[in-house]
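Hey, quick one: can you model this chain's 3D structure?
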Amino acid sequence: MIMQSTLFFDELNAIAEKYPNNIALLNANDQEITYQQLMDYVERAHGWLYSIGLRPGDALITLLPNAIETVILFLASIRAGLVYAPLTWASTFPEIIRWKKKVNAKVSLVANTIHHLLQMQINELDWRVEIININNQFNWPLCEHIAVEKTGTIVMQSSGSTGEAKALLLSADRLWTSAKAFSHYHQIEESVTRFWNYLPMSYLGGLLNSLLIPFAAQGSVFIDDTFNGKTFLNFWSTIERYQINSIWLVPSILRGLLNLSNRIGLNRTYPKIQHCFLGTAPILLEEKQNFFKVFGIQPLESYGFSEAVLISSESMSNVVLRSQFSVGSILPNIEVQLRPMQDSEEHETFEIWVKTPHFMLGYLTENGISEPPFDEHGFMPSGDFGQMVNGQLLITGRRRDIIKKGGALILLREIEQIVSSYPNVVEVAAVKIDHSFYGESFNLYVCPAASVHDYNVFQTELSQWLHKQLAKDKWPEKIFMCRDFPKTPSGKIQKHLLETRNSVNA
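Sure thing. Here's the predicted structure for all 506 residues.
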């Protein structure tokens, strides 16, 4: 479970030697950590992990918020050759028990801010529990130098947007090379780059997109609480106060900023934002264009999946080629094949297969590591369907989101796109269901705008309009009105949770 390489830390040390006094991390408490200080703290934390009995190959679970302490302990775990298995610090006790069993963890690092009852429950499990004070003290003791022999690994939950989350075993070295490739592609290898990290560090968005990529760019990272309602209100003032010039958005954040702007009449450009990236879930072309129109910031959408990380990205040079559902050009050193899947005589769909040097190591199961589903040529299916148009990859749907209703092929993403164009529809999800006559069909879940007060009238009018837009075999079985959708921390709609709803959530 350990990569036989120290590429990550060799190169991180080289950056610290090149820019020892440059800021690497800062937070809302005005705490600033230089690259040299960061590496010193990481070495101390490595020694502390060794002192509590952890050795290369051992697994530890963390329940920590976004904080500088979390970054240091993550890096120290990788430096120590450990298996780092983060959980969101809002996890429930049953979730912790399942994760502990899956990764066979010997130690848990728990934030002192975790609820006292949950701390007591965790302490009763068969492992060592260490309470981590989130207090900006970084007071790990000085220790004898411990050499880096092997780079550790990361076990991370998949997003769980379409089913139960899987445990992915990831190489820190491969994530680092992916981060470097992305930084180079977008020409952000500058020490003046400052990213804002508000995506949860228990997911790839928080570790790869808004931590390793900034480090690979030899820049700095503002560490903040995970995104919440307060973040919306202070979004632009935070950018100005901490001189942030690079951000990662997810669709729910982009939409929230646009909705807030519409409500308060804000229409101001922000030229200091040099890089704005967008990913993790599908978004409409009109939404990206509207964001640029309102804020003067061009959001560049990227595509990838947890097993293969970043696959494609828009750039300032190819954004003129974008179209509906396009996610940019294929990134260097990555191969994509579109393989036909004939689902009916009327339609042909193409699944995206990927070959990349940044693949995960495998899925972690109770029986060990299961190999990724590679074919004989080293390609892996993404589960997504797509096309290539003008050198741009288009994501047209997911395997789970393509159904065969009485012999007719229906692309659920097409349904969602049409419904999204109806006035006062904020979000929509078409969810596959079993049908006694047709075999498969779907239900439609809709989040109306806050200005909609009578859900029943809105639902009736939407249904009547939809019947005029679609052939009868594409009509949903039922339409449900929802105040909001269950989502992953990275903003993806958890459709498998919507499937269990049989009444209006209004």
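One thing worth noting: The chain has a mean pLDDT of 87.
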